[in-house]
């Protein structure tokens, strides 16, 4: 359903009647709806510019819904608003009610060369531009979770480690405002700088300090993949794997490259088949590496659940 991030045309905002460009959105000024996470807000003409500007920090997910035209689309918008809160600032969700914000819908339709904006519609922006092809139609909560997991993998693979600040909210009594977790800053800075050795070392420290830290484990697994694949030629790696189908090192390398390219299921299938064909130490290596790829993707991802089932079948 998703594609690698790729720059596309910027959105022309000149049709909007709005004040001067706004700063990055805040919940207090952006009309955050009750029940939304700290990384979701309602979009209107006043804050639309600021929402798109926020995509220079990290991706912005826009969801267009219509309570009158497609009541079910509002549930999808609510799911997006809720799910982005699980990624600690990796995404900011902008919820656009096209019934109330017809001018924004018209601008997006014109930019997308559409006569009318389909509802629902999901778009992902990075650096002010659409980062993937727009996704029209209903998307289930499970599919949305898979989408965000895959986009997160692609962000990490491309060294895009920025995070949105949580939108300003008023804490309830006895509660303190919580900012971004600083524990991951050193590892993310190393990824952004292209220093994979340092990134692995920083994530290893976090994983050693707290083995139950799922984000640290996933970050460590992905950093190791990036470390192994630095400077590797994809075509040469595929040719080597094709020439030696039972060479564990060759198959692992292509699986790593496939995962980084977003071909997660292909990576899993390659190693599952390798487990079927090999034995003893080679089989153990293939299995252990596949398990590390599961960690990189995230144990809650539906593709990981299917991959674990396939691995169990191959082993037993």
TrEMBL record:
<dbReference type="GO" id="GO:0006950">
    <property type="term" value="P:response to stress"/>
</dbReference>
<dbReference type="InterPro" id="IPR013766">
    <property type="entry name" value="Thioredoxin_domain"/>
</dbReference>
<dbReference type="InterPro" id="IPR011990">
    <property type="entry name" value="TPR-like_helical_dom_sf"/>
</dbReference>
<protein>
    <submittedName>
        <fullName>Tetratricopeptide repeat protein</fullName>
    </submittedName>
</protein>
<feature type="domain" description="Thioredoxin">
    <location>
        <begin position="14"/>
        <end position="153"/>
    </location>
</feature>
<dbReference type="InterPro" id="IPR036249">
    <property type="entry name" value="Thioredoxin-like_sf"/>
</dbReference>
<feature type="region of interest" description="Disordered">
    <location>
        <begin position="12"/>
        <end position="32"/>
    </location>
</feature>
<dbReference type="Pfam" id="PF14561">
    <property type="entry name" value="TPR_20"/>
</dbReference>
